[in-house]
């Protein structure tokens, strides 16, 4: 179990991925974004997750450079993720999208590149492109996002390389137990987006009670639950104090009873789009 902010899980190809990272969904380009990324790196984060559709890769890149300089670390110590958007899902267009993301970020490679959504009839060609990028050594690991079991089964029928990561909406109201079991069986690391359910869980009485007992915030309890479930997580924040707080989850442990209580909050409730029914 992770004991430190820089502890990693090993993906099925041997690449090490930090258990906790910074997400930047809905953070616009500008000084706030640059500062958030820099702050995270200076405070020990080594993983940053962005996507082409967030339209903030340039600022993320700037924050990475400033953070590396201040923390005096090398690029190899960081784990940077981006994702190909739906409009670019095709063989050539996905390869071009990868290069465009690198150019915006100002990086030579990504540690992880994901297909953002399972667009029917398009994700297999995109996956072929990711396999090419991977085989050519241009990216360290490849994966998917928002894929359900049937999407993964369909993808793996024709894939040469199975995904290393599946990043999905995951929080105590959407525990995705079947999907997690499937991913575990196939050596695919599950990663959580929207782990705090966009703030909707922060006044939940069960979580508040557990938080009080541990002298922690509800956010810290949820992030700890993710980690103890073996799920990589990337909470989003732009506030320095919150970025630090979100990472202070390695100095306590939830009991199995507390884990079960949190699991039982599941309602299969999404705050994001349904991967089986989206139109973008």
Automatic annotation (TrEMBL):
Keyword Oxidoreductase: yes
Residues that bind substrate: 116
Active-site residues, as the UniProt record annotates them: 54
Family: Belongs to the aldo/keto reductase family.
PROSITE patterns for this protein: ALDOKETO_REDUCTASE_1, ALDOKETO_REDUCTASE_2, ALDOKETO_REDUCTASE_3
Domain NADP-dependent oxidoreductase: 31-266
Domain of life: Bacteria
Pfam family, one: Aldo_ket_red
CDD domains per UniProt: AKR_AKR5G1-3 (cd19157)
Protein name: 2,5-diketo-D-gluconic acid reductase
Site positions for Lowers pKa of active site Tyr: 83
MF-aspect GO terms: oxidoreductase activity
Glycoprotein among keywords: no
Keywords: Oxidoreductase
Organism name: Brevibacillus borstelensis AK1
InterPro entries: AKR (IPR020471), AKR5G (IPR044500), Aldo/ket_reductase_CS (IPR018170), NAD(P)_OxRdtase_dom_sf (IPR036812), NADP_OxRdtase_dom (IPR023210)
């Amino acid at each position: 179990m992770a004991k430190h902010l820089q502890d990693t899980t090993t993906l099925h190809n041997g690449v090490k991925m930090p258990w906790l990272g910074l997400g930047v969904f809905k953070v616009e380009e500008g000084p706030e974004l640059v500062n958030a990324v820099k702050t995270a790196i200076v405070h020990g984060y080594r993983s940053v997750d962005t996507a082409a559709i967030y339209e903030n890769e340039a600022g993320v890149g700037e924050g990475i450079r400033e953070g590396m300089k201040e923390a005096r670390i090398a690029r190899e110590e960081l784990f940077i993720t981006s994702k190909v958007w739906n409009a670019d899902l095709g063989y050539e267009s996905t390869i071009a999208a990868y290069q465009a993301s690198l150019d915006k970020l100002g990086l030579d490679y990504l540690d992880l590149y994901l297909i953002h959504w399972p667009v029917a009839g398009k994700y297999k060609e995109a996956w072929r492109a990711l396999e090419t990028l991977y085989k050519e050594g241009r990216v360290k690991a490849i994966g998917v996002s928002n894929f359900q079991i049937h999407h993964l089964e369909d993808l793996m029928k024709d894939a040469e390389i199975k995904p290393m990561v599946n990043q999905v909406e995951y929080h105590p109201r959407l525990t995705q137990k079947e999907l997690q079991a499937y991913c575990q069986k196939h050596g695919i690391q599950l990663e959580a987006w929207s782990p705090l359910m966009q703030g909707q869980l922060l006044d939940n009485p069960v979580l508040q009670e557990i938080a009080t007992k541990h002298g922690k915030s509800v956010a810290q309890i949820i992030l700890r639950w993710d980690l103890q479930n073996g799920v990589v997580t990337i909470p989003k924040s732009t506030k320095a104090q919150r970025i630090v707080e979100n990472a202070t989850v390695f100095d306590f442990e939830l009991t199995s009873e507390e884990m079960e209580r949190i699991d039982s909050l599941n309602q299969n409730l999404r705050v994001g789009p349904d991967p089986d029914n989206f139109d973008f």
